[in-house]
Write a structure and sequence with these properties.
6-stranded antiparallel β-sheet, 7 helices, alpha+beta, two-stranded antiparallel sheet
């Protein structure tokens, strides 16, 4: 993927698009990374339990995923006073106490790394059928943790309350009403697009990991929307508004299903048969052009790193 396709990046009219500035994400080789905002050491209150204590660094995406990335490294997008910048390092945020970070939250990261080895590391292609087996609460807690970490690092709004944070920590039952969808995005075949300069690769695969807000302002009955992806696995997380009637929420639900082609809703049955979506990665980017500048920055840094390695 050494050049960009010639199609226009104008956003289409849709119910669900990436909200605000580009998302935190990472990818080994040339793809994407996350932007982290420095957290002042003077803030000594844990973002999860609220206890005043010494704080530790929490990865936006688990360290094990970075280590398992091809080549054993990642490229991230950092926010600087001069703007976004690609850096050869994972993204961290320093506002989590030792107990929350290394005991309660680390269990979630460990679980996701197990799922990575079982599922996420393999790119899904057209016609694939995945028998996805999972622990719904562990998965949802990790997805919410990732979005909460992302939101703090980027200064995004994250609708939270004490009960939600306790749920992420595993201290209370699941709060109402979350709905999670899994969409399997397939690579784009390079032969299917017009290129200014055709890349050598036969296909363009989804980035290794990404997390971003979704704009649900036009979706009746829903108050939160997030998307977290790991390679082909795109998780869409939504929270319904209990104050809205079930009939209106069902209308919003139908709009979400329409916008997530081929997605399967996950539940606490802990198993789902999911088929690959008809949506390929470059078509997804076309609908979400906020991602493209980050990918270009990461590509530039990747080329520089390869040149330095070759020169040694």
């Amino acid at each position: 993927m050494e050049s960009s396709p010639t199609f226009s990046s104008t956003n289409r009219e849709a119910v669900l698009n990436v909200k605000g500035d580009p998302p935190v994400s990472f990818r080994a080789s040339f793809d994407d990374g996350g932007r982290a905002r420095d957290m002042k050491d003077s803030v000594h209150v844990c973002a999860y339990c609220g206890i005043a204590t010494d704080l530790t660094k929490e990865h936006i995406f688990p360290d094990c995923l970075h280590k398992k990335s091809p080549g054993g490294g990642t490229i991230s997008i950092a926010h600087t006073p001069q703007g976004d910048k690609a850096v050869d390092a994972p993204v961290q945020i320093k506002d989590v106490c030792f107990l929350c970070n290394n005991e309660k939250l680390s269990r979630l990261d460990t679980y996701i790394c197990v799922l990575h080895d079982q599922y996420f590391k393999t790119i899904v292609h057209s016609g694939d059928r995945i028998d996805f087996r999972f622990d719904f609460d562990l998965l949802l807690r990790w997805l919410l943790k990732t979005m909460y970490n992302t939101s703090r690092s980027r200064g995004w709004e994250f609708k939270r309350d004490v009960e939600l944070l306790k749920y992420i920590l595993g201290e209370v039952p699941r709060p109402p009403i979350f709905r999670v969808f899994l969409q399997l995005i397939v690579p784009t075949q390079t032969s299917s697009l017009e290129w200014r300069m055709r890349p050598q690769a036969k296909e363009i695969s989804p980035m290794g990991g990404s997390s971003n807000n979704l704009d649900v302002s036009k979706v009746v009955g829903f108050v939160q929307g997030y998307r977290v992806s790991l390679n082909s696995y795109f998780f869409h997380i939504f929270r319904e508004d209990e104050k809205v009637s079930s009939r209106l929420r069902e209308s919003g639900f139908r709009a979400i299903v329409k916008e997530t082609r081929g997605a399967c809703e996950l539940s606490d049955r802990n198993r789902a048969i999911v088929f690959s979506s008809s949506l390929d990665y470059m078509t997804y980017l076309k609908a979400n052009p906020l991602l493209i500048p980050q990918i270009e920055l990461a590509k530039q840094l990747s080329r520089q790193l390869k040149q330095k390695k070759t020169a040694k």
